[in-house]
Design a protein that fits this description.
Layout: H1 7-15, H2 17-24, H3 34-46, E1 51-56, E2 60-65, E3 70-74, H4 81-97, E4 104-109, E5 114-118, H5 122-139, H6 159-163
Parallel strand pairs: 3-4
Antiparallel strand pairs: 1-2, 2-3, 4-5
Helix pairs in contact: 1-2, 1-4
Bound molecules: iron/sulfur cluster (SF4).
Length: 164
């Protein structure tokens, strides 16, 4: 597999493996999706003063770094919180592989005025390694599996592709 696994792929691996497959194979429809537009506006409006979108190796894309050593990921809601947490843990994992260990992370939910601290444990690292293997397996399939409809399907940009 030549393409590097990025944070979005970790997120989609947890949210929906079919979505991961589409994304990996460059089938992208998110621009059309209202939720993503809201996310972009939120991103632009909420944190104008911070240094934003720090991309490392095209693998991780940090929304912004505020104080020294704390990276922030901005999310619209806590609806798919687990996926967001693993995305951020993956950033910490990736940075650790590069020798950066003195870094912490927070997820910001500006619409809720809440933040969540995220840490990487040794158990998390093992779990991430399992996920990386799982992702490679999903994206190497010739066609994506058709999962049962899940709750988020109705607000997913790929809905027409999956079910119409
Ligand atoms: S519509 Fe549902 S099954 Fe299809 S990609 Fe989106 S979340 Fe996955």
């Amino acid at each position: 597999m030549e393409k590097a696994i990025n944070g979005t792929m970790i997120y989609y691996y947890i949210v929906c493996k079919r979505k991961l497959w589409y994304f990996f194979h460059n089938i992208q429809m998110e621009q059309e999706n209202e939720n993503v537009k809201i996310g972009k506006i939120l991103d632009e409006e909420s944190y104008r003063r911070e240094e934003k979108h720090i991309t490392i190796d095209n693998v991780i894309s940090i929304d912004y770094i505020k104080q020294k050593g704390i990276l922030h990921e901005v999310k619209k809601s806590r609806k798919i919180e687990e996926a967001g947490i693993w995305q951020v843990k993956y950033y910490l994992y990736y940075l650790k592989q590069k020798g950066v260990t003195d870094i912490k992370a927070k997820i910001d939910y500006p619409l809720l005025r809440q933040t969540l601290d995220v840490e990487l444990t040794l158990e998390d690292e093992v779990e991430i390694e399992h996920m990386l293997d799982g992702i490679k397996k999903v994206v190497s399939e010739k066609i994506p599996n058709i999962p049962d409809k899940i709750k988020i399907c109705k607000s997913c940009a790929y809905y027409d592709l999956c079910y119409i």
